[in-house]
Design a protein that fits this description.
The protein is α/β, with parallel strands linked by helices. Helices cover 22% and strands 19% of the residues. The protein has six helices and eleven strands. Strands 1-3-2-6-7-8-11-10-9 form a nine-stranded mixed β-sheet, sandwiched between helices. Strands 4-5 form a two-stranded antiparallel ribbon. Strand 4 and strand 5 form a beta hairpin.
Length: 259
């Protein structure tokens, strides 16, 4: 599979590694690199970024990732090999390897968190879900604890916020990661659900699960008015969409910096 790697070896010797996966709507890996701005941030903060691309999925006619219940290729094996290769050539800190992506890349980030948590320290998911068109009991337990950050727009019409009978909701995704199948968290900032029993979006704008296995954390932010896209503009401006009142200079205010 093709991938781009951005690394400035003059910055520091041992660097975090952030793998950014493209999605179905991205035409070039260079476009993903420019659009996310992660390479510019890498120069500022001193980390390496890999931009991998999935293989062509014959049924869809575009490149895609083999997220849960779309296993047309061994993408988990590819990422294991990619991380091992970059560990040898770039030398990232093994405790600071992260994956993120949009949109099928977000779905794949969930799967990598589950099946590569022996290599991956954290995943950042933008407009994704734990699974699409699947059967929840078939999602295996995570290999080990991994921190998870989820950002999802409540107006996303592609990956619905509250899911469907066969697509995971954001509540299901959060509960998986914070539950006994993954991080076994015991402290929650709110008992309220992201979606009610009728599948309606609630007023909750963020959820945080702490006191988890391996000192991990599971964090969710609702992007109020957010759709299925990457936002480079600030998301903490009242009256401007998307919006979340909890974003600030500490959390970050744009997608890149929050992730």
């Amino acid at each position: 599979m093709p991938y781009r790697i951005y690394h400035n070896p003059a910055l520091i010797d041992t660097v975090p590694l952030n793998s950014v996966q493209k999605g179905l709507v991205d035409c070039l890996l260079l476009g993903m690199e420019i659009g996310t701005g992660f390479s510019r941030l890498a120069d500022q903060a001193g980390f390496a970024v890999a931009y991998p691309d999935g293989l062509l999925e014959s049924s869809g006619g575009q490149t895609n990732w083999a997220y849960f219940f779309n296993a047309f290729n061994d993408d988990v094996g590819f990422f294991r090999q990619l991380i091992n290769t970059l560990q040898a050539s770039v030398g990232p800190d093994s405790k600071r390897i992260y994956v993120t992506g949009l949109p099928s890349g977000a779905l794949m980030s969930h799967r990598l968190g589950v099946q590569l948590s022996d290599l991956v320290a954290a995943t950042g998911v933008l407009e994704g879900a734990l699974f699409l068109k699947g059967n929840p009991p078939q999602v295996p337990s995570a290999v080990g604890p991994v921190s998870v950050l989820i950002l999802h727009g409540d107006q996303d019409k592609t990956v619905l916020y509250c899911g469907t009978p066969v697509d995971a909701s954001q509540e299901q995704s959060f509960n998986y990661w914070s539950g006994n199948s993954a991080d076994t968290c015991s402290r929650f900032d709110t008992p309220a659900a992201l979606c009610d029993g009728q599948g309606n979006i609630t007023a909750v704008v963020q959820k945080d699960a702490t006191n988890c296995s391996g000192s991990t954390e599971v964090k969710f932010y609702k992007l109020i008015g957010g759709i299925h896209t990457w936002y480079a503009a600030p998301m903490n401006v009242p009256g401007q969409l998307p919006f979340n009142p909890d974003f600030n200079s500490s959390t970050g205010i744009a997608t890149r910096d929050i992730l």
